[in-house]
Every structure is written in C-alpha cells, then in structure tokens.
Request: fold
Amino acid sequence: MRYLPLTSDDRTAMLAAVGASSIDDLFVDVPTEARFDGTIPGLPNHASELAVERHMAALARRNVAAGDGPFFLGAGAYRHHVPSSVDHLIQRGEFLTAYTPYQPEIAQGTLQMLFEFQSQVARLLGTDVANASMYDGSTACWEAIVMARRVTKRGKALLSTGLHPHYRSVARTMAKYTGDVLVDGDPSLEAGTDWAALAQAIDKETSCVVVQYPDILGRIDDMTALANACQSAGALLIAVVTEPVALGLIKAPGEMGADIVVGEGQSIGVGLQFGGPYVGLFACKAKHVRQMPGRLCGKTVDANGKRGFVLTLSTREQHIRREKATSNICTNSGLCALAFSIHMTLLGEAGLRQLAAINHNRAKLAAAELAKVPGVSVMNGGFFNEFTLLLPTAARPVVHQLAEKGVLGGVSLGRLYPGNDGLANGLVVAVTETVTEEDIAAFAAALKEVLA
Amino acid sequence: MTALNRAGWRPEMTAGGADDNVTFTGNRALMLEEPLIFEIGSSETTGVDFDEAAPAADIGALARSAPIGLPGLSESETVRHYTRLSRQNYAIDLGLFPLGSCTMKHNPRLNEKVARMPGFADAHPLQPQETVQGAYAVIHELAEWLVTLTGMHSVAMSPKAGAHGELCGILCIKAAIEARGEDRRVLLVPESAHGTNPATAAFAGFTVEDIPATAEGRVDLAALKARLGPDVAGVMVTNPNTCGLFERDMKAISDAVHAAGGYVYCDGANFNAIVGRVRPGDLGVDAMHINLHKTFSTPHGGGGPGSGPVVLSEALAPFAPLPFVTKQADGGFRLIEEESAGEDHPETFGRMTAFHGQMGMFTRALTYILSHGADGLKQVAEDAVLNANYILRNLDDVLDAPFGFSGPCMHEALFSDKGLAEGFSTLDVAKGLIDEGYHPMTVYFPLVVHGAMLVEPTETESKAVLDQFIGALRSIALRAKNGDPALKSAPHFAPRARLDETKAARNPVLAWSEPAVAPGVPVASEVGGG
Reply:
C-alpha cells in the first residue's frame, strides 16, 4: 500500500475527530445490500513494484514492437523518430501531473505552451486559428462536420472516398444521432481522387465536403478548385490531415482555401502508442472561431500589466452552456499537445522541411524497389511518404505471411475495406525516416518470396 | 539605442531607473520569465540532426514554397524553454491539489515506466493481430477488473475521455430504445450533474429536462418519479454526486426508471469514493463511465489525455461500440471490428474513434490496479472518504457547509461563500490559497450552491498535509470573513497576478503574430512593464 500515507494511528485519530466510531459510519448512506466489506471474489490483493513490473513486462514481450524489424505500417498512424528530450521534458512533474489550467496565475506553463501549440498548428495547417487540441483525428473530423452544420445551417456532408474508413465510420455513427446526412463511398484503385465529382455534387443542402490529404491511398492533389466550388455554393471545405509531417513539403490545406482543417498530430512527438493517446488538431478561419469546439487559450494581461495567458471563449463550452454547448468535449490532449509542440520546436521550420524531404525521398526509393517485385506495381501518380501497392493476389494473407518472416509490411485494404473485392489486392505502405535501405531490401525480398 | 536582451524585456531598465523590486530581465531569482518560442527561435535554427541533407524536393506545383513561420530552437534552448515554463505550473508533484470532482492523486512513476515499454508504446494499432496479443491481453485484463469492481456485465473500452464515455453510454441507451421500436426523446438530468451530462444528451439528439435537488443536496426522488413516462429514455445521475454526497435513493431511482421503461446512466467521475466498497451494478445502473485518469491514476498532463471506458448492464451490452477485444477458447485474443461484428455483435451502434482507445492509459491504469489490488483499492475509497470528512469537520465552523448537517460526505467536502464579508467571494478565498502554496479547490461548482468550494483531498495525502491545509484555509476563511482588503488582490506571490479574462474574451488573441514595430521603437511593446 505504498501510495497510501495514512497510518492506522492516523485513521483512529481522524475517525475520532470526525465523530465516527468506524469507517463504516462514513458509508452510512450506502444501502447495506450494496456494500461489500470483505474481499472481492476473483481479484488478487496488492503486489510489489517488482512483481507488477514483471507481469507487465511479460505482457509487453508478447507484442512485436515496431522497432523489432522492418516496419511499413501507416494508414492513419505513423512511426517517426522522437528526440529523447521530448519524452524527458513531458515527464517533468510540473507538466505531467498538472491539471486543466483553471487557475491561470499558477498554470502559466501549461497555458503558454498551449498558446504556442495553437500558433504552431495554425501555421502548419495554413489557417488563422487552432484550438488547444482534441482527442484524436477521427473525433476532430466528426466535430468539424458538426461545426459545419452550425455554421451553414445545413446538414448534408459529402465525404471523399479517400477519407480514412475508420474516420468515415466514426462520422457515420455520429450522424445517425445528430441527423446529418452523409454521402460517401469506397475509393477506386483505377481512378484518381473523386474531388471533381464532389465539386459537381455540392447542392443547396450541402454543409461541407470532407477530403483527406494525403488520402487513405496516399494520393495528393490540389484542393483549390474544390475549395472554390464549396465557397460559391456556401458549403465549407474540411480537410483532414493524418500525416502532418507531409505539410513540411506540400502546401497546407488552409493555403488552398480549406475552411476547417483537422488532423491527427500523433506523428509529431507522440509515437504509435497502439492507437492512443493521440492528439487531435483542429484549426479554422478566424471568422468561425466562436463555432469551434474544444478549449482555446488566449493572450491577456494580469493586474500588473504583465503578459499572461488564460483559457478563453468558454461561453461555447459545456460547463457554461450545458445543453447548448458547441460540443460536449471537456478535456483536451494536453500532454500530447505538449509533446507535439516540443518536437515541433526542436524541428523548427528547417528541420521539418528536411524531415519531410527525407520521408518523401525514402518513400520514392521504397516504391521503386517494391515495384521491381514480379507482379507488383505502384498505384499512385503522386504521394508523400505513403503509397498503395497493387499485388497479384489478395494483400491480406500476404501481410500475415510477411509478419511470419519478421516484416511488418503495411496495411491491407482488405482489412480496411472488408468485403470490397475490388480493393482486396491493395496494400498501403508507409515509409518514414525510421526505415533504412536494408529494411526496404528485406521487405522486397520477403514480398518476392511470399508472392512466388 | 539601449541594449536589449533577446526578447526585448523591460527596455526602460537600461536607462538606469530601477526601483528596488524590479529586475532588468523580469526574472526573480529562481522564478524565471520566459518569452515565446516565436520571440527567441528562428526559422533556420533546429534542434535535430539528420543523417542526410534534405534531398531536392520534386513534388511539383504542390510544393510548399512560402515560409511556414515555424520557429526552431537548438536542443539546449528547447530544454531550457520547457523546463522554465514547467516551473510556472502547480502540479500534484508539488503539493495538495484539492480540485473537487477531479481526483488529483499521486501519479506513480512505475505507471510511466510500463507505458513506455516498446511492446506497448511502439506498436501500431493496425498490426497483424498475432503480433499484438500482449496489448490485447492488457485491454482484456483491465476490462475484467472494471467489470468485477463495478458488478456490471461488460465494458466498452474505446471512449477517449470521460465526456466521450458519457456519449458512449447515452448512444447505447438510444440504440437500445430504438431496438425496442420506441421513440423516447427525453433525458432527465439533475441540477447537480456535471455540465457535460446535458451537453452529451443534447448532442445525441435528446431533449434535456432538469430534476431539482432536495434541501439535502440529493436527487428529488418524488420529482423524478412524477416526471417518468413513455417519453423518458432515462436519467443521468452522478453518484456520489457533485455535492459530495452518496445518492441514498439510488436503488429506488433505478427501480422507478426501469419500471417506466427507461435506463439509468451514472456519471462515474466520483468512483474513487466507492471503488472496492460499492458496486454500481448492485444499484441498478445500466451504464457508467470510469475516468481512468482519476480513480486509476493516469497523469492528467495539464488537461489530458483522459480515458473513459464505459461499464454496461446486460441490457445495454449488445449495443457497445467497435472495436473491442474478445478472448478465444484457445486463450488467444481477437479484435472485433466492423467486419466480424455482423456475426458476433450485430446490434452495435458503431465506432466512436479510429482505433482501440487510450492504450497508454490502459497500461498505466492496469499497473496501478495491480499495485493496489482488491484490498488496496478498498482502502483507497476508505482513506479518500476519511480525508474528505476530516476536512469537512475541521472547517465547518469557519466556512459554511451547506449539506454538512445531512451526514458524512464522500470523497469531497462542499462549502459555500455564505458568511464571508460583504464584497468577498469564493474567488478571493481561492486566490488567497495560491499565496499559501496550494492549488485552490474547485470553485463555483456545483451550481446548486452559491459560491461553491468543492474540496477533494484524495487518499494520497497524509494527515500532516491535511492539517497544514486546514490551517491555511481556516486562516483565509477568517480573513475573508473579516474583510481583509489584501485578500482582494491575491495572489501576490504567484508568477502572475489576477489575469484579465474579460479582455481575453472580448478581443481574442489565439495565435502569435509578429508585433507591428513602429520606427524607432525597440521591440515587444506588448510585454508591458513589470
């Protein structure tokens, strides 16, 4: 019971001080049939630090870690090298064990960091303002669709077929309850992005068009024409970025006219984490700021005229507006936002551009090498660090056979789009700076063997 | 031209006119002022080295050519910047953090070590299932603990925070009602509920109706019963409630709601008070989120991440979201996603988030649970409740305790501003506590009490710490009762004096922009004098 400082003498003295004869007196409001005072069946008692660490380490060893061999998975979560100082700094107790900055006078560390984070995110995504983070990219995407309904007073969202299928799934779930109508479909391996068709499909009921950039198949395209089509029809263009490192090399969605840009910030500073915690990015044009969900940090002054920061525009939030709030979101991903911000500060503009260029170059090399495997071709015309391979057979069993050979070789479209035979031969491959030339050679060799 | 430091702080100091308490840098010994990264970084500076130079980009017309405007710092500058910022924060590592309803308890470092094991931290959510059996085992093992501790049927692990968990539970209720072919559009939410409760209900398309509180600070059972009917989908109750009290009538509430065809949602934010001693399943709860970051001690990190698994009754279990982990007959684990849901879980309401939830929180929470065990968790609830009552009874002579008459509190003690001198408020008490070296309690919540102060010490505080805190709060309460004017301008010793929140909201500045520099004026005029 190493986390519990009260001694039995303390407990006795404190019970006497509050006028209770036993601890049960303090639980007097709990109906007796709902109390249990003995042990809980099936659950063990407390354990030493060593025993717990041993147990958890044994579970960890039952996983293949991404660093254990050649690794090429992406599809919404990317493996990048995170500088050591990032994790060191976020583990400072004053960051790690602080809470929501409700008392700004003694939370300026968190608040200034959030202001810097908002500023970095807005510049990276090419927008005016960003919030202080959300749960992850998929929930941020859904919140953007809900926000578009508030802004446009319309309820039909057109989702690009290139949107991550899990993001689409989240949006579909929520739309059932919010009353939004979603129009979507699966991507095609033969055609390019569906953005021109989306521009054609916008009508008077359309609240927003949601595109992903780069998209689930790794395709990149210019969204300017689509942004113009949205604007002239009174709809919003929502761009989803799942790999923000790309924006060190390719134009930001905001630069091309997107009204709301949301993203998954995991690839900068946070790590794979088996799916979470991640960090949702949410940014938009300044005119829509009062319709934004989530926390916002703003600059102000204190009673002595010194610059300081506070959480602001909270009249949008649930704790004030209750059922009229812009969102029910209450927390943010503060610590993950800090990791993102530190990593981005270490990179700076020069480092981010270099990192992005290395990612792209390494991916081009991999695409060229993998396309040499008999029967394999690369679908993409253009890409950043992720592309889709077309295999001569269904990709899904191939992934498992590659894993048996120690290569984690990508995400099969069969897993992402179960039941869609037209996509079954597609394999989405991500290549970051963590992938070496030896890894690429090992992947190509293993793929050749599996397909032989 | 006067000499300036890099950030342009206090340029007038170089003119020589300093009073005794003003420094050139704005620093005060170990309390250091810190400029923004945008003021000290540059677009050429970087704190990372790569093995290769940036290759020539050949991305064509999509190339990002214009400056992005991202400042970089060297590694040493970065470490200093964030270390200095960290020192402007209060944290549980520094002392008592008695935020009511937030459960700020000690964060064991073993949890951090475990979460960083490569098998957990460096695994991809879409890896082949046979390569992540250990991660699935963690989710399954934690799920078993949560189900057993709450006496419920099953648990949905994917919600990413408490409010996300509320949404999950409410969507389960909605799906269950639709599956019955009924149209019930009203959710009853007591006044004392968290603000997220009505927001969540509205988001899921329900109409929210308030249920009043009794004079004793509990749900008015008669009013609740009177409102039940065929249009009511259910009730959202917080238990223990936000007045720090156990809802004595919880079983009667559940029975009445069930008899009327509705479901009971319980906000489990205060589970810390009853873990190991009371099972919500025994009280008739159908769905309850558990804030892992509170009861099971994953660090709050300046606001998050949280994690909000939702325990479900047998009636709601079929509607739980995807994906989830099941144990196979051979001892292995399998992930149920959209594909396999058709046969195994056809009534699911869908997916709430891209991947499996907050794995990094699961490893920490399971580590904490195993460290405490069943016996330790029971002791957690008992010590948390004892500590809160110790605070209540040692302060109720100087601070109004609106429900102190109605018996013991649970793990938080509620006070109000009644009896403070004219013009003195809860805010003044809070800011006074800052000068005493404490993070203040939760203020102005719950709304059912005027000028509320909700104090939650948690079980990880010693008697000595509580005694000092009680002494400090007594002294401030007495100053507020006596109208000490110095309290009105507190805090005096914090990194900042009271901040102008009205100005921040009226003219929102949410991102940094280069200051407009008038000719002849140095820089950073916005910084202001000290």
